[in-house]
Amino acid sequence: MYDKNNVFAKILAKQIPAKIVYEDDECLAFHDINPISKIHVLVITKGEYTDFSDFVCNSNPGESERFFHSVEKVVQTLNLGKSGYRLLTNTGEDARQEVLHFHMHILGGEKLGI
Ligand code: AMP
């Protein structure tokens, strides 16, 4: 069940601030408040999806493809295309997903650990 009071829903509603790096009709990208790499940006959907599986199974036609293109735009905005980056999305308890609103982590800006 999607919780409309989760922290990312509040960021989308502009109830709490975020350092935004990119926005379009369907997604918002902002810096992670607790970065685990030199560059750590989150890309979240504006649609109410709890996780990757919910997004892929229940989004509108073309939405997931557009999301990945938006992630690529963020990668270019952050100038990570050449040096490289890691995409990560946690789903569920075993992955320790903290915020139950679908998001993609973009990690980079330095050599990452395994
Ligand atoms: P996950 O474990 O994949 O759900 O990751 C949630 C991420 O959201 C963590 O990396 C947190 O540091 C980040 N986070 C939590 N609250 C905020 C916030 N208010 N602004 C930016 N990032 C946040």
Structural summary, described in words:
This protein is an alpha+beta fold and 114 residues long. The chain has one domain: HIT-like (HIT family, subunit A, 2-Layer Sandwich), CATH 3.30.428.10. 25% of the residues lie in helices and 23% in strands. It has a five-stranded antiparallel sheet with strand order 1-2-3-5-4, with helices on one face. The longest helix is centred in the middle third of the chain and has 15 residues, at 63-77. It binds adenosine monophosphate (AMP). Adenosine monophosphate (AMP) binds next to loops.
Short structural description:
By secondary structure, the chain is α+β, with helices and mostly antiparallel strands. The chain has helices spanning 7-12, 52-58, 63-77, and strands spanning 20-23, 27-31, 39-45, 85-88, 103-108. 25% of the residues lie in helices and 23% in strands.
Provide tags for this entry:
binds adenosine monophosphate, 25% helix, 5 strands, single chain, five-stranded antiparallel sheet, alpha+beta, HIT family, subunit A, 114 residues
